[in-house]
């Protein structure tokens, strides 16, 4: 049940332009960054580097989206939102690359072009996730809105 | 002999069996305790959600009934707080696998609307008839949402439905289970979806941001994948070479504007060391670039890195850029630039550049915001002088720097401001005062690590 979706949720997220300010870099605490690095490591450690930046960017895009919680921890610990939270892999110690991916995303790099969800097509069983408008594929993940 | 062994072993085995049984029972009890704990957390979140929506509805009703400006501001502040609290509740429920996002979005919009309205000076700008109407509609809609949610709440209590089952049912897409909760919440979300776009007034589209059609026109003619590859290589200053492995993919249609992703692998690089460049389909502009080759010990200072970044931008036609923020991690300097026009900083037109401080090569570039906003603007003349604007500042802060800047304010409008870099004790802030009225448009704190110039 937990392997089904790689950290995504639902959302019609029909974000109008008006909902999307020019990427403001949020002032996150060091521990928010630590949490994000853990999530990136837990979710995407086998992925190419931009795939890791992409996962971090999705978390930040959710922070700006009205359909998601308003804090990093709220987003990560939303029940069922991220596989690595559900199976405890978020508690692995992240490496340098995961931290760098988080910092790049914080500095405004978003390889996904505004994605709010991603999933692994090989393991995803939710029909719903396939209905989301897809943006691009990076490594094993398909990123969508 | 056999009986003797049996006589000894039997009690031993019996004891082991009893022990194992007791252990199993304990494990079972513990598991149940954890399940109950989790279930209770879900129950709490859902009942609180109901409570917050009940209150939200009643506060919205009060806004319509009160007369005094103060009363309106007070009740609207409550609406804002309750909408936020309700959003937090939703975030704690296992609704990940079902559409409930319209409802979340709705709550967020109510919150924003209430906030924007509550903080404004209602004596100068009272509620407009349009806003009054929006509030009436919101009240009606909140009443419907509350009614539907209460139905689900009643069902949960009467039939002892469990959220843990919801989680399981959603995960397995099992149609056999009792779906009262899921169906009830779907009803709520469907209803919200039907509400359509409500006139929240403040949600006006961002001024100064091109919409898709305009961008298409401005960015130029469509390019082919082959052309995208050439553009990417030219951007990197790399000559096309048979040894380079270049992969070009056109991105899927869900993207806001069509683009190509180009991945370049140099001979000898590992799989993870591609240089990735995204190029727009129209005009072939580079949206962003990232190079993940390992970086050695820094040999350049951050200032030398800045020169490299500035030169890089200039070569690519981006002159008149001013570095606003500098940071460093893992041997890489990160420089954030904004465009300037006649000395006015244009904050929406932002570009970021990463420089590897070992060799000075450019390892990152991000220009989406710039591409979406940049154009020659007709800037208004400021209505106040800098000295006049300065009088609107808090008397406790020390001004370190001042200038004119164009920013997007909270409502997404581009406004000309006086920008003051100020220090208050150890903390530094960037304060933007409207250049016509002196009103505070925005205040940003500057993290200690960043070293603005």
Count of individual beta strands of chain B: 12
Shape of chain A: globular
Oligomer: heterodimer
Give the N-terminus to C-terminus distance of chain A in angstroms: 23 Å
Report the structural category of chain A: mainly alpha
The count of DSSP E runs of length 2 or more, i.e. the number of strands of chain A, is: 3
Residue share in β-strands of chain A: 5-15%
Average pLDDT figure of chain B: 87
Measured as a percent range, the helix fraction of chain A is 25-40%
* Largest inter-chain contact set: A-B, 57 and 73 residues
- In total, how many domains does the architecture of chain B comprise? 3
The poorly predicted ranges of chain B are: 202-207
β-strand percent of chain B reads 15-25%
Q: What's the gist of this structure?
A:
The complex is a heterodimer of chains A (145) and B (453). Chain A is mainly α.
Salient structural properties:
A: 145 residues; mainly alpha; 3-stranded antiparallel sheet; globular; B: 453 residues; alpha+beta; Nuclear Transport Factor 2, Chain: A; 3 domains; 12-stranded mixed sheet; 11 helices; 46% helix; extended
What do these coordinates show?
The complex is a heterodimer of chains A (145) and B (453). With 145 residues, chain A is mainly α. Chain A contains 6 helices and 3 strands, in the order αααααβαββ. Chain A has helices at 30-44, 49-64, 72-76, 83-86, 96-106, 127-130, and strands spanning 117-119, 134-138, 141-144. Chain A has a 3-stranded antiparallel sheet with strand order 1-3-2, covered by helices on one side. In chain A, 60% of the residues are buried. By secondary structure, chain B is of the alpha+beta class. Chain B folds into 3 domains: 12-209; 218-373, no CATH class; 386-446, Roll (Nuclear Transport Factor 2, Chain: A), CATH 3.10.450. In chain B, helix 2 (69-91) runs antiparallel to helix 3, helix 3 packs across helix 6 and helix 4 (129-159) packs antiparallel against helix 6. The interface between A and B is large, with 57 and 73 residues.
């Amino acid at each position: 049940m937990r392997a089904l979706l790689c950290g995504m949720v639902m959302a019609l997220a029909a974000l109008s332009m008006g909902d999307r300010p020019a990427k403001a870099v949020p002032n996150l605490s060091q521990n928010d960054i630590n949490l994000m690095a853990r999530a990136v490591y837990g979710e995407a450690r086998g992925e190419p580097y931009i795939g890791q930046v992409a996962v971090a960017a999705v978390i930040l895009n959710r922070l700006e989206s009205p359909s998601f919680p308003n804090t990093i921890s709220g987003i990560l610990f939303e029940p069922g939102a991220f596989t690595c939270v559900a199976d405890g892999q978020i508690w692995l110690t992240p490496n340098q690359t995961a931290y760098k991916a988080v910092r790049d995303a914080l500095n405004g790099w978003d390889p996904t072009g505004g994605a709010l969800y991603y999933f692994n097509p090989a393991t995803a069983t939710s029909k719903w996730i396939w209905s989301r408008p897809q943006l691009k594929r990076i490594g094993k993940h398909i990123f969508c809105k | 002999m056999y009986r003797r062994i049996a006589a000894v072993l039997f009690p031993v085995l019996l004891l082991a069996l009893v022990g194992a049984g007791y252990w199993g029972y304990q494990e079972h009890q513990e598991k149940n305790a954890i399940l109950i704990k989790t279930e209770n957390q879900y129950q709490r979140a859902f009942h609180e959600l109901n409570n917050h929506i009940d209150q939200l509805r009643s506060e919205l009703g009060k806004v319509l009934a009160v007369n005094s400006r103060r009363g309106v501001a007070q009740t609207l502040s409550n609406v804002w707080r309750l909408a936020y609290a309700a959003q937090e509740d939703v975030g704690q429920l296992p609704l990940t696998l079902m559409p409930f996002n319209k409802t979340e979005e709705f709550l967020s919009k109510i919150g924003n609307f209430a906030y924007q309205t509550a903080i404004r000076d209602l004596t100068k700008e009272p509620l407009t008839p349009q806003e009054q109407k929006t509030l009436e509609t919101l009240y009606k809609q909140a009443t419907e949402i509350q009614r539907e949610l209460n139905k689900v709440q009643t069902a949960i209590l009467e039939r002892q439905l469990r959220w843990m089952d919801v989680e399981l049912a959603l995960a397995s897409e099992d149609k056999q289970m009792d779906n009262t909760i899921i169906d009830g919440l779907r009803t709520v979300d469907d209803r919200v979806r039907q509400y359509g776009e409500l006139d929240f007034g403040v949600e006006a589209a961002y001024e100064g941001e091109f919409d898709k059609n305009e961008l298409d026109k401005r960015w130029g003619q469509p390019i082919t994948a082959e052309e995208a590859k050439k553009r990417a290589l030219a951007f990197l200053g790399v000559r096309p070479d048979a040894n380079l492995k270049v992969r070009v993919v056109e991105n899927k249609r869900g993207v806001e504007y069509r683009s190509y992703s180009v991945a370049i692998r140099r001979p000898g690089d590992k799989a993870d060391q591609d240089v990735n460049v995204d190029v727009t389909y129209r005009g072939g502009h580079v949206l962003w670039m990232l190079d993940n080759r390992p970086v050695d010990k820094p040999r350049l200072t951050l200032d030398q890195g800045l020169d490299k970044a500035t030169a890089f931008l200039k070569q690519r036609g981006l002159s008149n850029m001013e570095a606003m923020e500098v940071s460093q991690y893992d041997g890489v300097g990160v420089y954030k630039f904004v465009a300037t026009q006649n000395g006015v900083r244009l904050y929406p037109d932002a570009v970021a550049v990463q420089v590897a401080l070992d060799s000075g090569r450019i390892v990152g570039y991000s220009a989406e915001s710039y591409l979406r906003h940049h154009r020659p603007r007709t800037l208004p003349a400021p209505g106040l002088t800098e000295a006049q604007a300065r009088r609107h500042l808090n008397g406790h802060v020390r001004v370190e720097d001042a200038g004119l800047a164009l920013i997007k304010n909270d409502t997404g409008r581009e406004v000309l401001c006086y920008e003051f870099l100020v220090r208050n004790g150890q903390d530094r802030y960037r304060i933007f005062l409207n250049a016509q009225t002196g009103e505070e448009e925005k205040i940003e704190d500057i993290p200690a690590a960043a070293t603005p110039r």
